[in-house]
Known about the structure:
Elements (H helix, E strand, L loop, with lengths): L4 H21 L16 H12 L4 H14 L8 H32 L15 H9 L11 H22 L1 H13 L11 H15 L11 H22 L5 H25 L3 H6 L5 H23 L4 H26 L1 H7 L14 H12 L1
Helix pairs in contact: 1-2, 1-3, 1-10, 1-12, 2-9, 3-6, 3-8, 3-10, 4-6, 6-7, 6-8, 7-8, 9-10, 12-13, 13-14, 13-15
Amino acid sequence: xxxxxxxxxRINLMRIVLISGIVFVHIPFDAANSAFNGTYGIFDWxxxxxTEALFRVGVPCLSAISGYLLFRSxxxxxxxxxxxxxxxxxxxxxxxxxxxxxxxxxxVALGFGLGNGYVPDPWHASARDLMTQLLATEDFPVNVPLYxxxxxxxxxxxxxxxxxxxxxxxLLTLSVLLVLALVPELSLYIVLKRSILFSFSLxxxxxxxxxxxxxxxxxxxxxxxxxxxxxxxxATIIYLTGPSMPDWVQLFRxxxxxxxxxxxxxxxxxxxxxxxxxxxxxxGSLSFWIFCAHYPLLLFLWIxxxxxxxxxxxxxxxxxLALLFPVLAVSNSLCRxxxxxxxxxxxxxxxxxRAEAPATAAAISSEFxxxxx
Length: 373
């Protein structure tokens, strides 16, 4: 079964929107600038709304998309060895390259006395900690967002078992995985984020059982309104109870991170009808570039900010976003033009999968800026 043009465009749109949202989650701050201090009032609440509520749905939603795309053609056409070989190039290799490059940059910077206190210290780490920093064996890697690629590859390795269970006992399988995803303070060890395992399996279910992805589009406005209202409620609760959230608040957040994926999917039904939605759906591998490169750049900007002696945190929050997206768009375009083979490797060959719209870096940046307003 082929994905129709509308669904395909909406999936591409979801990637760029959700990954842009994930950027908000990773904007650095310190104890003095925690949103829970309430120093900046409504601005701090808005930070919590974006980083602790609305965009926490990003990773579960992206993993559901991956599971769906892997099995949308059914079990009969699924080749495990071919899939593992392909995903080793498109998921595992970029994880290793981007994370190792950032690891080496940290080693060099710390060797010159730069970045102390801002990044993990490989010079004084145990062998076990080094394995985690490089390979995310037990915790997040040095390039923190890349844990998703690590967990996604684990899900791909487990995909035949998950697909077999879902094809025979779908409700039981999804129910067990959902409980495991929602229960606070539980570690599965095989994945760093439990919600990824459930969401990936949910995507498999949608693909295997040919669920109509446009069935609820007529309720898009209601779904988006519920998503925003639920995120606002959760943000208010977290703002009042954080940073040490009670278990019931964590359960609420975990639930919204999963259920909110439907709200974002319905949002894509509205956005894809707009000019900006059409443009963003054709940015192709830029979304993957942003995902892999944004965290090191944010840390670099945070270190520079720390040396400047300016204490008004909202300036950093807004200023880093104003710089980040244009820099990433320009670097994406330059690398693709100057070193196409390297670019293809760093993006997992995603340039070969879809044609990208002939948009300039400046145009792409303006789309991001408009999206945030």
